[in-house]
Every structure is written in C-alpha cells, then in structure tokens.
Amino acid sequence: MEFLLSVLVLLVLTSAAVAGLSAAPWLPTKPSQRRHLLDNLFVLPTARIIDLGCGDGSVLFALAQKYPKVTCVGYDISLLPLFIAWARKVIGGRKYKNVHIHFGNLFTAKVASFDIVIVFLLSKCYPKLQKKLTAELAPNARVVMEAWPLEGIAPIEKIQSPGLLPVYIYTAKSFRE
Asked: What are the two backbone dihedrals, phi and then psi, of residue 51, each rounded to the nearest 5 degrees?
C-alpha cells in the first residue's frame, strides 16, 4: 500500500512539474476573475468552448452553468487538478453533462471545431501556442487569453477591472493578418 501511494504521489508531482515547465503551474482561477470573464464574454447558446490547460475546470463548469447548451471541453496534463475536475463533474451529475475533461497535452489538442479557445497560461508558451492557433483555428473562432497579450497580434478587445488580471480577446483573423 505504501508503495502504491508513493507511486501515485510521484505521478502527481511529475505531472505538475511537466505542466509547469511546458505551459503553466496550476493556479486556480479566483471566483472574482471567473465572474469577470463570464460577465464580459459573449457566448452563443450552442457554442463549443475548449480550455487549453483547464486545471480543475472551474471556468468550464461556470460556463456550463451559465450556458447549459454549450459544449465545454478541457485539456490538462497535471493530474491533481484533473482529479478535482473529474470529481466535480461526477458530483455535479447531469448539471455538467456538457463538460468534458481530458488528460492530454494542450499542444496536441485539436481546436479546429471550437468557437472559443480559452488560454490562461504563462506567456513563455505563447510562441508555440500561436503557431498552433494560426494553423488550426476555425474562421470565426475567438481566443480568450488571461494576464498577458500575444506579442505582435492586436486583440479586438481588452477587458480589465481593478484588482483583476486583464483578459484579451482575439479572433482567428487576428492570427492570420
């Protein structure tokens, strides 16, 4: 039993280290930041939303509650927040039937069929992410980035409130100009 627990702890720590080194360590989104995003993000009732580096899925679950007909998909490689997201989905039952959480590398997740791509990561991964988004975004897709803007691409909107991180909104067209 002790051996299994040690292996589990090692897996969780290793996945957290890989996530932190490749894109961002897990930092749960503050409720006020989530509300700020939800209050300012226009979402069509049947939108398909993907969160690259979703952590515990808090943004996806909040979107699913506000927009019960949207499809919310999240990817992360850090096991602890994923376990929390999976547990929350199970506990929420039918309330979260439109939320799908996946273990996987955000750089290999396919984004072409999504209307909104959410990215709350460190800017160090932006060059690699920018290439991916440029190649894969659907023509009418929007990209929502928290904290840091993309270098060399002008957002169509910057949402900022005192005491909260800024949110930058881009369109697929922004990536191709």
From this structure: -115, 110
